[in-house]
Automatic annotation (TrEMBL):
Domain NAD-dependent epimerase/dehydratase, first and last residues per copy: 3-209
A Pfam family reported for this protein in Swiss-Prot or TrEMBL: Epimerase
Superkingdom in the source lineage: Eukaryota
Protein name: Short chain dehydrogenase/reductase family 39U member 1
Domain called DUF1731: residue spans: 246-291
NCBIfam families: yfcH
UniProt xrefs under PANTHER family: EPIMERASE FAMILY PROTEIN SDR39U1, SUGAR NUCLEOTIDE EPIMERASE RELATED
């Protein structure tokens, strides 16, 4: 199968490309930079969709870059890098003479309102209470296609754990130095998924014609709290992890609005993902972290 992957140069995209190649698929990446086996976003707009059977979008400016100040310009970049790329791919799919079989978008579990008590599955309401939930709503709306010639899947992802990027890349140094610990109260839920499972769920969505609609991309161990996560990361590294990072420090680094992503959380269940027949490789946090930091 030929698969077109927007943002395929990134953390998830590299793992997905590797897995697709290992299964005999051909991958073309859509990137801001030209290169081998790539097209640029401008080429996509001008020449339309290259021949392919599946399209995935993973493009997006990094949300938790601690070196970027939380301001209007950053918020605009977060929105446009997701909405414009998704809209460009959806438009190209809609115009394609030979439409692909599958169109898969990765968004986030920020769609669901943080809570210490609620439990969310794919049918739960959300998407309308803060900057990030609104971002997910607009992002998923930008992916909508007019007809049903192409099967559509949206994977709402939790924090992706793996080597060389994602959620734990900024945490590793303090934890390795024995300076890690829970963030804020530590009671907030911390939905996570191993990168191997994220890539495999995307391939499952591409290859199986019965998979459609929203899938939560989180591990089935959905009740992990931030404090439990910190303890497990410390254990995987063989380091103590008792030093809490106080909420005001997180707010000072990330800005109040963005700090919510770290200080609050939601319990998310992958009900439809499991019902679609997906079997997790890393359902347990200890094994997932051990592999991710090895
Ligand atoms: N990693 C996670 O824990 C996680 C969790 C939930 C949701 N997600 C979502 O999943 C998607 C993929 O995540 P990831 O961790 O693989 O992302 P990533 O590595 O940070 O970035 C993916 C790619 O997006 C492109 N990109 C970056 N800034 C851009 C901009 N301003 N305009 C257009 N393209 C831009 C880059 O490709 P080029 O440089 O080649 O253009 C980059 O390689 C993202 O949309 C992310 O929000 C990720």
């Amino acid at each position: 199968m030929k698969v077109l992957v927007g943002g395929g140069t990134g953390f998830i995209g590299r793992a997905l490309t590797h897995l697709l190649h290992s299964r005999g698929h051909e991958v073309t990446v859509v990137s801001r930079q030209p290169g081998a086996s790539r097209i640029t976003w401008n080429e996509l707009t001008h020449f339309g969709l290259p021949p392919c059977e599946a399209v995935v979008n993973l493009a997006g400016e990094n949300i938790l870059n601690p070196f970027r100040r939380w301001n209007e310009a950053y918020r605009k970049d977060l929105l446009s890098s997701r909405l414009d790329t998704t809209h460009k791919l959806a438009t190209a799919i809609a115009k394609a003479v030979q439409p692909p079989q599958a169109w898969v978008l990765v968004t986030g579990i920020a769609y669901y309102q943080p809570s210490l008590t609620a439990e969310y599955d794919e049918d739960s309401p959300g998407g309308n209470f803060d900057f990030f939930s609104n971002l997910v709503s607009k992002w998923e709306a930008a992916a909508k296609l007019p007809g049903d010639a192409t099967r559509q899947v949206v994977v709402r992802s939790g924090a992706v754990l793996g080597r060389g990027g994602g959620a734990i890349s900024h945490m590793l140094l303090p934890f390795r130095l024995g300076l890690g610990g829970p963030i804020g109260s530590g009671r907030q839920f911390f939905p996570w998924i191993h990168i191997e499972d994220m890539s495999r769920i995307l391939v499952h969505a591409i290859e199986n014609s019965h998979v459609n609609g929203i899938l939560n991309g989180v591990s089935p161990a959905s009740s992990t709290t931030n404090a439990e996560f910190a303890k497990a990361l410390g254990a995987a590294l063989g380091r103590p992890a008792f030093l809490p990072l106080p909420s005001p420090a997180v707010q000072a680094i990330f800005g109040r609005e963005r700090a919510v992503m770290l200080l609050e959380g939601q319990k998310v269940i992958p009900r439809r993902t499991l019902a679609s027949g997906y079997q997790y490789v890393f359902p347990e946090l200890g094994a997932a972290l051990k592999q991710a930091v090895s």
